Amino acid sequence: MHRLKYAWTQRQKTAFRNRQEIIRAGLTRRDLFKFGLLSSTGYLATKGGLSAWAGGGCDPGECDIGCSPPTLPFVDPLFIPPVLPERDPLIDPGFTPAPTTAPNRAINPATGIPFEGRTQSHQFRSRFPPEKFFISRMAPNPNAMFSQDPTNLSRIGPQLVWGFNQGGSNFTTDPAITPGPTIVSRYGDPILVRRYNALTGNNGGFGVPEVSTHLHNFHSAPDSDGGPCDPNTGAASTNPLLQGRFFFVGQYYDYFYTMARAGFDTPQHTATDGDVRETLTTLWYHDHRVDHTAENVYKGLAGFHFIFNEFDTGDENTGFRLPSFPDFDIPLILTDKLFTPEGELCFDTFGFDGLIGDKLVVNGRFQPYLDVQKRRYRFRVLDGGPARFYRLYLTNPDNPSQRIPFWAITSSDGNLLPRPVEISGTSSQSPQGLLLSVAERCDVIIDFKFIWENFGQPSRLWLENRLEQDDGRGPDDDIFPPGNVNHALMEFRLTGPNNVVDNSFNPRPVAYPTVGCNANDCVFSPICLPPLPTNNAAAQEDKVRITRRFRFERGNGQWQINGEFVDCSEFRFKVQRNTAERWILQNNSGGWQHPIHIHFEEFRMIRRNSQQIQCGRLEFGRKDVARLGENDEIEILMRFRDFTGGYPMHCHNTMHEDHAMMLLFELADTGDDRTQP
Fold first, then answer.
1. Pair 286, 435 in one domain
2. 655, 294 in Cβ contact below 8 A?
3. Which of 378, 379, 345 is CA-nearest to residue 364?
């Protein structure tokens, strides 16, 4: 912790000590409710009254929106995470002991616990033996900077964050960074990622050093899904340490990914190792430690994972000709942060609604800038949470009234659309702004040459979030006017000559609404939308076996699904392997919104509040997060194929997830008939 510039009051010292003791004791919000130490409004009770963190104002040590020190925008270049290097398991000492299909549960004499945190064997590893190997180590970095402000006008100095490094064992030469290194893989090349837990007990006030890394949206077996907990891992033990999928300091965990498309073990697609229409593109990995996901991800445990294939090749001269990686294909993870008035990164572990920060951060930097050439770029935009939603616009700050278009090529979960969609164009049918809830992702094409030639030759553009949101409940749906620097996430600076080489795909002539859109479109053939499951399909994996209903609501001061809190010792229901189901998601929680994420398989959204999802909307594509707004009801269809075992469904406002809005289901050879589990 940094030395405070001002003395705390006795009340603030007491509140701080109370919270530190709670964190050290490993108590969760549910424990505090049980002991009567937490009010229904989310405030921590102490002998002196409510925690000082609930008092409002900006006294020293306060962690509240509006209390962070001032910073300057656009003084830092955008940080682009490095690509995680491939390693040779035969010679790299990081692969000692060697990876095996079964977990290495031998006791490490140096730690007294098993070498590996994994407790289940990799599924289908003999069919898809790993061909590419990677190592990354999770560790603290006490010298991380959100800004290198050369003017020294910012009072925010080095921070203790947690991150991932590029696999080296020397954290001086290979420090942990956030976002972590980008993992790049390709379909047809199975991979193994060994992650070491080198975190420490000194967490700087929040964060728990047991970890579980979830590859968000990949078609993984439970052993490598990185879920928060699973009854199968602890033989239905009531001890959460046995049920957890997390692993401890001093252990490693081998994550295995088949790099095969969904459906690879169904009769329809066995010969081709999966359905090409299920091809994934932009994924991300993040911590998923049960009860502590929000604080661990907020502290830095997140990064991107890109998947290329024979069509989306990463080279604009081949396949779909999307802008070449890495020069013109760039990840952007959007987050917001809170700091004390002294410049200390802070997190209210027991906030009920979810945390909203007052500092906008892109790839770990305050409001950075990026020099861009006058050509097309692909930006992979991710809402990294923990609770803020975004509605994104391109703005010319020197002429804010201009409506500058860009083009979405993927759904709001990073998978190719049947037809690109123009965002913020002049047509009334164009979506106004790119709306993303927590964990949603969208790949967009920005054509800086087109903008320069048609919008007065601007020298700079802002990526703005103009969606008003005052707390973690969700946005108000009010839109701020353009051109306010406080809403600018980053600045693009148009540089270089006017005629640079650009062989990339131009979405403008084929995009909706310039071209009409229908369900059979397939601009990126053969990666088209799979047919929807039906009640009377001939193939088992296409037949809807059951309809289930899930109510997301508030009860007994916490978050519930169908009136129950998450229980890591039981599965709520069983899904039958290689069948399809219809799920109805209902928001009964009042003024809160919930981005609902389902592990393992993607779904198709069919209706929102009885209105059919139409082509031309970003929700029309394959998705893994459903934005469940106030009083919404959403109908989805999804298939469950290939693997067996346990998976979660949860709210991806990670504070809601940590506070019990999650359930576990099991994928088995025989499913049950529970319609409201």
1. no
2. yes
3. 345
User: Quick one: pLDDT at residue 476?
Assistant: 86
C-alpha span between 598 and 601 (Å, rounded): 7
The pLDDT, as a whole number, for residue 540 is 82
Residue 231 and residue 347 share a domain: no
Judgement on whether residues 290 and 341 belong to the same structural domain of the protein: no
Nearest to 215 by CA among 226, 204, 223: 226
pLDDT digits (tens, 9 = 90+) for 484-499: 999 999 999 999 999 9
- Looking at the fold, whether 114 and 207 belong to one and the same domain comes out as yes
The pLDDT, as a whole number, for residue 364 is 96
Domain count, the chain: 4
Question: What is the reported pLDDT for 239?
Answer: 54
Q: What is the CATH number of the domain that holds 480?
A: 2.60.40.420
- 141 Cβ neighbours under 8 A, 6+ residues apart: 160, 161, 162, 163, 171, 175, 176, 177, 178, 300
pLDDT of residue 237: 47
* Token code pair at residue 413: 């979960």
> How many alpha carbons lie under 13 Å from residue 41 in its C-beta half-sphere?
6
Last residue of one domain, picked from the residues 510, 527, 562:
510
Phi and psi angles of residue 674, each rounded to the nearest 5 degrees, phi first? -80, 115
Q: What is the pTM of this model?
A: 0.91
Identify whether residues 488 and 579 lie together within a single domain.
Answer: no
Domain C-terminal end among 510, 526, 551: 510
Nearest residue to 336 (alpha-carbon basis) of 387, 287, 401: 387
Q: H-helix or E-strand containing 296?
A: helix 293-298
Write out residues in the chain with pLDDT < 50, as ranges: 1-21, 23-24, 29-30, 32-56, 235-237
- Asked if residue 61 is part of any domain, the answer here is no
**φ, ψ dihedrals at 256, nearest 5°:** -115, 130
Distance CA 338, CA 361 (A): 11
- Looking only at the bridges linking them, the beta strands covering 625-628 and 594-598 are antiparallel
Name the residue range of residue 34's domain.
Answer: 10-54
What pLDDT, on a 0 to 100 scale, did the predictor assign at position 591?
85
Enumerate the β-bridge partners of residue 658: none
| Exposed e or buried b per residue across 401-426, where buried means at least 16 C-beta atoms within 10 angstroms of its C-beta | ebebbbbbbbbbbbbbbbbbbbbbbe
Cα–Cα distance for residue pair 392/485, rounded to 1 Å: 14
The answer to whether residues 492 and 622 belong to one domain is no
Per-residue tokens: 486? 């406080």
Tokens for 355? Answer: 């945390």
Of 598, 570, 600, the closest CA to residue 583 belongs to: 598
Provide the pLDDT for residue 377: 98
Are 20 and 141 contained in the same domain?
no
Which distant-in-sequence residues (6+ apart) come within 8 Å of 491 by Cβ? 73, 74, 367, 368, 369, 370, 460, 461, 462, 463
- What are the counts of helices (DSSP H) followed by strands (DSSP E) for the chain? 7, 35
257 and 343 in a single domain? The answer is no
Residue 596 falls within a domain, yes or no? yes
Please give the pLDDT value at position 233.
77
What pLDDT is attached to residue 157?
A: 83
For residue 290, give the 3-state DSSP assignment.
Answer: coil
H/E segment holding residue 581: strand 579-587
Q: What are the tens digits of pLDDT across the range 74-85?
A: 999 999 999 999
On whether the CB atoms of residues 348 and 29 are closer than 8 A, the answer is no
Q: Is residue 516 part of a domain?
A: no
Whether 90 maps to a domain, the answer reads no
For 161, the 3-state DSSP assignment is: strand
- Residue 381 near residue 304, CB atoms below 8 Å: no
